[in-house]
Write the structure tokens for this entry.
Amino acid sequence: MASASRGQWSGKMGFILAASGSAIGLGNIWRFPYTAGENGGGAFVLLYLMFVVLIGIPLVLAELSVGRKTELNPVGAIEKLSPGSKWPWLGRLGVLTGFGILAFYSVIAGWTLWYLWAALSGKFAGEITPEISAQMFGSMTSDPLLAIMLMAVFLVLTIVVVQGGVSAGIERTTKILMPLLLVILIVLAVRSVTLPGGMEGVAYLFTPDFSKINFSVMMSALGQALFSLSLGMGAMITYGSYFPKDENLPQAGIIVAFFDTGIAVLAGLIIFPALFAVGIEPNGGPGLVFVVLPTIFNGLPAGGFFAVAFYALLAIAALTSTISLLEVVVAYFVDEKKWDRKKASWILGGSCFVIAVPSALASGGSPFFTNFMGLGIDFLSLQNVLWGNYSLSIGAVMLCIFVGWTWGVPKAIESLEASGHKFPASGLWSILIKYVCPIAIAIVLGYIIWTGQYF
Ligand code: TRP
């Protein structure tokens, strides 16, 4: 059987863990707080939650239905459902986007390794003031060789897992560690919220100031919803393709979405109270989380231990996400180009290293990439916006049209219900995927393109 040789999750739980592993990562813990901080807090959070429900969850199910039906990578899957059409280009855009995201994501992931090392060597045992923390962060990111090496180490870790194949590598990595991450996050959130002045951060996160809402905030919230749920480039198509035939797919998909969103909110409850308590500005950019966190370990009982546990789990959460990014690219070359999995993993991961170098130099390592071409944005943030917001949104809108109109909602629902479990919300889902999602995304994207406020 073809599916047996491609590998399959060991069951619904295996899928939930693996897909959560893909979804939960730096997107929740690094990207969500820093993007919320740059976009005014509560208003952004409200829009983000709205987009998760209205666009994110329907799209999770759309991608999973395509994957389950075809048991193929995004390109092969779309080709199979719409032979001879131009639609497979949507899959190719997805593969390219996975590559683009991996090339900046692995830089941030590399930073987590440095912080893990710092925690292990007891750097966070004493009191860390915001100034000391900012300086620590800066001295790491502005060391070009260090930043490149950290990124390279992370890519090698990713390659090693992906070359081992899907269920063996990915599932095992996620199984124990995701629940552990949840526990640590809860402890840190309690610590942070109870800091003197911490409640101000909670208010910042949950009190929407509607005057802050504009199209650029909407674009960021939409991008964040897609990015966090690993949508818009076929990662969920790929993961759905390994989904067991006899299990309830919609239910599993919705659980993953809730779990992922919960972790993001939890990360917000760690970062914002702490930031208000120690007096750091919320709009600190990509370094925000890395600067804020070291300031809270000291007051925690066994703070040194928590620091180590936190950075270890953050690195692992990042790894289960980079795995899914590389997996999409590798699955394409294995399925469509008949490459050997091992060879594909090393060649594609290796090329990603080359493309990631400018992003590694974008936080002080090289003036050219730190203020890229004098645009007033660093190269890494630019990649983050380009791939993470725009490319994913374009992929998402096209996927809605493909599933809702070309392949067609009835067939998608048939695939979602293939196990014999009825999908009770199928009527609502078809309205969302055919009308609400594509129109909403197209309006936001269209407005941004029209007015040229790209970043
Ligand atoms: N969702 C992951 C995170 O939040 C990142 C990620 C993994 C991703 N695979 C993806 C984002 C595919 C978009 C598409 O960290």
